[in-house]
Amino acid sequence: KGDHLAAVALYREVLRLAPQHHSALSNLAYLYHLLGRRDEALCAYRRVLELCPGHASARHMLAALCGEAVDSPPESYVREVFDNYSNYFEKSLLLDLEYCVPERLRAMYRRVAGEGARCRHGLDLGCGTGLGGQAFSGFVDRLDGIDLSPKMIALAEKKAIYRKLRPESIAAYLKRTTDRFDFYLASDVMAYLGDLQETFLLLRERGRPGTVFLFSTEGAPGNGYLLRETGRFAHSATYIAQLAKQTGWQVISQETTQLRKERGDWVMGELWLFKMAEG
Fold first, then answer.
1. What residues contact residue 91 under an 8 Å CB cut-off, 6+ apart?
2. Spatial separation of the C-alpha atoms in residues 21 and 73, rounded to whole Å
3. Which of 107, 235, 254, 260 might form a disulfide with 97, Cβ 3.0–4.6 angstroms?
4. Long-range contacts made by residues 11-18, C-beta under 8 angstroms, separation at least 24?
5. What b-and-e string marks burial along 257-274, b requiring 16 or more CB atoms within 10 Å of the CB?
6. What angle do CA 176, 179, 185 make, to 5 degrees?
7. Angle at which helices 56-66 and 75-85 pack, to 10 degrees?
8. What mean pLDDT is predicted for residues 238-253?
9. Quick one: how far is CA 210 from the chain centroid?
10. What is the SS3 assignment for 73?
């Protein structure tokens, strides 16, 4: 119901009665983190790892809060986040966070490709509940989707816009599929990948000449990428442009924009349109 302080009080009472109740402790750490109570969150995440050394989510969030250099998050962390988020995902994004990245990517595509442009076979990377696919369903003859979260996939199926949906990672799917695509979409996905080199290379390998690749990134300073305290990754525009050149993609369009709100403030980032370079 959004009453975070009441939830904190209840979890603290659970832990008074059962000090080693690790799921209560993990949820309390998350709430402290959400409320900006950094020191208490650090203490709680460390206690979770004392009780459960293999707790991937706690280890990832501790790394985020401590500013550690991390290349990618554990798949189990991403799956858990979105499985837990699935039932109120769209309401939270659209109403609370004012998220409209798919529509802005669609507008970018229209400006570059024109109103009548169509693609034969597209892949929605990290498709979630299908918000991105919904925005582009009129531009792609066949659209498939992949996502780590089975619960998000189940919700995407209800939209009836995908020919095929698979609950697996981007890398695993691209390595095993024999399909070739001329359209890729990744709306608010790179923030859960970190190092993008392998992803860009695999997408090129499964693409066709002239393949279009639309995606968003959270902005970062400098020439690389970093793990933010939120647990998501931010990428600098320089990093994306350099990596595109290294992996055989051409930057056709780039736009700095507001991605969504976070604690009342806008998260800034970039929208990108790549085209597969010739040769």
1. none
2. 25
3. 260
4. none
5. bebbeeeeeebebbbbbb
6. 95
7. 100
8. 97
9. 25
10. coil
Return the residue matching tokens 């806008």: 266
- What is the value of pTM for the model shown? 0.93
Higher-confidence position of 62 and 116? 62
In this predicted structure, what is the pLDDT of residue 261?
Answer: 87
Closest CA to 26 of 6, 9, 51: 51
Q: How far is CA 110 from the centre of its chain?
A: 23
pLDDT in tens, 160-217: 999 999 999 999 999 999 999 999 999 999 999 999 999 999 999 999 999 999 999 9
What residue has token string 């969030």?
61
- Measured distance CA(179)–CA(155) in Å, rounded: 24
Q: Write out pLDDT tens, residues 264-274.
A: 889 999 999 99
- C-alpha to C-alpha distance for 112 and 25, rounded to whole angstroms: 49
**In angstroms, rounded to a whole number, what is the distance separating the alpha carbons of residues 108 and 124?**
17
Residues 160, 132, 169, 68: is their CA dihedral positive or negative? negative
Rounded Cα distance between 82 and 154, Å, is 12
Q: What is the pLDDT of residues 213-230, one digit of tens each?
A: 999 999 999 999 999 999
Bridge-based pairing state of the strands 181-186 and 164-166? unpaired
